[in-house]
Amino acid sequence: MSRVFAIVRAAIPAAMIVLVCGFSARAADDYPLGPDSQKQDGVPEGKVTQGKWEGSKVFPNTVRDYWVYVPAQYDGSKPAAVMVFQDGGSYVNPTGQFRVPIVFDNLIHKKEMPVTIGIFLQPGSIPAETEGGKPRSNRSFEYDTLSDQYARFVIEEVLPGVAEKHSLKLTENPEERAICGISSGGICAWTVAWERPDQFRKVLSHVGSFTNIRGGHVYHALIRKTEKKPIRVFLQDGSGDLDNLHGNWPLANQEMAAALKFAQYDFKFEFGDGGHNGKHGGAILPDSLRWLWRTK
Q1: Which residue ranges make up each domain of the chain?
Q2: In the Cβ-directed half-sphere of 214, how many Cα atoms lie within 13 Å?
Q3: Is 122 within 8 Å of 65 (Cβ atoms)?
Q4: So what's the pLDDT on residue 14?
Q5: Burial (CB count within 10 angstroms: exposed 0-12, middle 13-18, buried 19+), residue 127
Q6: What does the radius of gyration of the chain's CA atoms come to, in whole angstroms?
Q7: I want to staple 274 with a disulfide (CB 3.0 to 4.6 A). Which of 29, 74, 151, 199 is the partner?
Q8: Is 36 exposed, middle or buried, given 0-12, 13-18 or 19+ CB atoms closer than 10 A?
Q9: Fold of 31-292
Q10: How, if at all, do strands 81-86 and 116-121 pair?
Q11: Measured between alpha carbons, how far is 36 from 38 in angstroms, rounded to an integer?
Q12: CA distances (Å), 108 to each of 115, 189, 282, in order?
């Protein structure tokens, strides 16, 4: 340590050094939830029902948990908007980072988003073939694969199945259908809309894995060379996201944003200092949904 630095450091009160260092430590990846992510007095609460999804023809032999959120304002008189969530358990959790049912309650009550049915899907798992064995996760195959397979699962099986099992009227208007996910679930959400914009036209991606897990790193190039599709997309990522053998998540999301801008998509990109988690995405979820569901 140089003598000059030592004198300057000695002149700074110890309490101030602790304060500055503490502030720096808290500032990174520190995203508190706002009032729209908290239960509010006088706001009607929707109902969440859990079920087990089995018998898929698109993903044979898989089983998965799922949840359906029905807002208090839904009366069945007309089809409701719908939003599908991958890794649904983390999104539906009322004490988690996203708390979607609470956010939906507040925004629907304030008429800042339409009356919307939420469908929360866990990735499929394949039961063990031997007694005492562990089930095999089908998550990466379902979420990271670049094909229309997961879109067909949602469109052909989940939407009509949920409508029938829970006696719900779900819209067939692609402008009133949204899909969301985190990490591999984020790229999955984009893939559904990319493959089937005739069915889904709103996408919300949190720390999306637009990297080379199963070829997802090509999307930014495809967007630039493909005729623009009628998709509205909100991307969120942070400078502290992953960097590994599959790629660099912050760079990949910035590439996606640049490609969407070049192709003149209706998009928004929120880039913070967070890591590979739902802290930032959860904190801005209410504003993300307002932007996604806006009418203009």
Answers
A1: 31-292
A2: 13
A3: yes
A4: 42
A5: exposed
A6: 21
A7: 29
A8: buried
A9: Rossmann fold (3.40.50)
A10: parallel
A11: 5
A12: 6, 22, 17
